[in-house]
Prior knowledge:
It contains 13 helices and 13 strands.
Amino acid sequence: MRIGITCYPTYGGSGALATELGLDLARRGHEVHFITYDSPFRLRGYVERAYFHEVDTAMSRYPLFEYFPYTLALASRQYEVAKQEKLDLLHVHYAIPHATTAFLAREMLRGETDLKVITTLHGTDITLVGQEASFYAITKFSIEQSDRVTAVSEFLRDETYRAFGCTNCELEVVPNFVNLAEYRPDVATPHQPLAADDQKMLMHISNFREVKRVKDVVRVFARVRKAMPAVLLMVGDGPERADAEHEARELGVAGDVRFLGRLDTVAPLLAAADLFLLPSQTESFGLAALEAMACGTPVIAARVGGLPEVITDDVDGILEPPGSVEAMARRAIALLKDPVRYAAVRDAALARAAVFSADAIVPQYEDLYERALAGR
Length: 376
């Protein structure tokens, strides 16, 4: 099949999943065309049968264009690529504006080819952005006009039905997946110079938005640090980074917190970490948690959204209500101090991650594509 993929190319779960999906599809023999304003951050170097088509975002000199109309430029580029490359379908990730632009591209091609539009919902496009008054109607319309719609968790599917109704569409759950060839325990980077041999290494990865509760990450770590030597790796960047840095200084642990910024490759660090912290206010799935589990790193997370579909509390990880800093810290300390229990949770996390391997999930997308193209 010839498949077009549009996603946000920046750091975040939707862009990561979309890129990993495209790369795996290319490895399976499909022709994949990424269409977005920048090369996706996980598209590293040349990959056979995977191509990138940039959306021109150069600002027109026309004075009426105070703000560049990116949505129209994207729809036009999707149309051009679909026509030139004879795409069978467009798979767009994140409803706004990608499902809308794909609808426009499909309409522009009407009478020439029957381009199918697949929309995958990832989380805040439904729980936050799509429910804003300014976007509600167009989000609902774009979802209902897609040929197929998927959600990355049962939680997100149910939330979409609750928020939008979507009487003219059927949502299928196709969960996020992890590339076990990249995310595995034996790729661990040495602790030094990030941590001494006697220090436990805790880790967090996110876009540092308010919903990630990054100050809680620091607060949990500060309590662990009182109980044992430890360091915290904070990977990513965003609006809450300054607050997290301030919290580390206020709690007296700034010397043991490493803010590493945005990194393209995180598997070696995840594999080296002893615990991964994800105390988010909400998570539609928790791709970062799954990648940590695949590296053999137990996860302590909030019991919210789709995370209980990935993590079973006290089996392959730890779940506590959001904001439960004391409980998360207490259980983290207990796990780190019990090598036998830690090994059991680690092994269970590896087994659980295998359920969400690319080999298990990507064929579900292939089947979805085939049914869409056949009109089934």
